[in-house]
Amino acid sequence: MNTRIEITTPDDWHLHLRDGDRMQAVVQHSARQFGRAIIMPNLTRPVTNTAMAMAYRDRILEALPPGNTFQPLMTLYLTDTTSPADIDEAAAEEHVVACKLYPAGATTHSDAGVTDLRNIYPALQRMAETELPLLVHGEVTDPRIDVFDRESVFIDRVLIPLREQLPELRFVFEHITSSEAVHFVNDQEQNVAATITPQHLLLTRNDLLASGLRPHHYCVPILKSINDKKLLVEAATSGDARYFLGTDSAPHARHEKESACGCAGIYSAHAALELYCEIFDAVGAMDKFESFAAFNGADFYGLPRNSGTITLEKSSWTVPDEYDFAGERLVPLRAGTELAWRLSDD
After folding, report:
1. Which helix (H) or strand (E) holds 324?
2. Among this protein's residues, is 111 annotated catalytic?
3. Mean pLDDT of 248-260
């Protein structure tokens, strides 16, 4: 049994860092574990153009611990007015690696998102031409659709027609949560990949709703069934290059989660690799972990694999109950509980 593993330095292909003092409070968690991360653009003022993305990148770099080499990979937030010229500018900037589709109203700070895909079809065509990937938050926002069905309905209403209209468009189906999403990705022959979060590999809707509501397990897309989790674990640990690590780590202050209308988002950056290790170890797939964490995402984005390494050891530790969050409190995933794996500082 492996009690210590060394792998190529991994990357996080879906990360929320916030901004200002809050960003400075959490960025070191990701920078300690990952070589790079794709930074989500849904700030209070969305990052909608290349100049804004580069300014945000500068703020992240300034907040890093001295000597840290973590590289933020930037994205643009698509709106109904995003133009082909905006895409050309983004494609010409090496530090902008993708554009993000938020259906308007789907999640945190998505109100400025796309109301109808037809509004951005010229921009999507230019993305296909420039090979700039589309990152998809895959949920419909139709209030008539059950919250647990929003991902599967999005596949039928949006993704399948999009594949028929623009088969050359490269896209990542982000934070997939359902058996339908796994089947969709498995059916694609090219240009499509998916990220999977630790919470959707570890938890089900029972962990959110059974025996009382647990607001710190509330995320969007919402946790699904035991069968959905089973298929997600099979996909993540299969060795299939279309699946890779994306935490969707999303910090919110404790009072914003524990409220009458709590925010969606789970914070996992404090122990992302340890959480994923627990999953891969449990199903005897540690030999597949390096590809999932360090190779598949870089290969999909056409970026070089990292040259350094990190080491994880099977050594238990207890997750803090809270972290400081710019003077407020941040409750992490698995707060106050024991994890079996630890990132080594050696």
Report:
1. strand 323-325
2. no
3. 97
CB proximity list for 54: less than 8 A, separation 6 or greater: 74, 93, 95, 96
168 occurs within a structural domain: yes
The answer to whether residue 341 sits within a structural domain is no
Q: Does the residue 91 lie in any domain? A: yes
Q: Does 51 have pLDDT greater than 90?
A: yes
Q: Which two tokens stand for residue 323?
A: 């972290």
The interaxial angle of helices 84-91 and 50-63, nearest 10 deg, is: 40
Q: Which residues, including other chains, have CB under 8 Å from residue 265's CB and lie 6 or more apart?
A: 16, 108, 218, 219, 220, 248, 250, 251, 252, 257
What is the Cα–Cα distance from 57 to 70, expressed in whole angstroms?
A: 11
The domain total for the chain is 1
Residues 137-147: what's their mean pLDDT?
A: 95
Here the CATH number for the domain that contains residue 267 is 3.20.20.140
* Confidence at residue 317, expressed as pLDDT on a 0 to 100 scale: 98
Could you tell me which of 120, 51, 107 has the C-alpha nearest to residue 80? 120
In sequence order, the 6+-apart residues with CB closer than 8 A to the CB of 256 are 262, 263
Question: Which two structure tokens, joined as six digits, stand for 337?
Answer: 């509980």
Catalytic one among 11, 228, 248, 281? 248
Extract the tokens encoding 319: 């997750």
**In sequence order, which ranges of the chain are alpha helices (DSSP H)?**
20-33, 50-63, 84-91, 121-130, 150-154, 160-165, 179-187, 198-202, 205-209, 226-236, 254-257, 272-282, 289-290, 296-301
- pTM passes above 0.90: yes
186 band by pLDDT with thresholds 50, 70 and 90: very high
In a domain, 140, yes or no: yes
Helix-helix angle 226-236:272-282, to 10 degrees = 100
Question: Which domain, by its residues, includes 186?
Answer: 12-307
Q: What is the mean pLDDT of residues 19-43?
A: 98
| C-beta of residue 42 within 8 angstroms of C-beta of residue 110 | yes
Q: What percent of the chain has pLDDT over 70?
A: 99
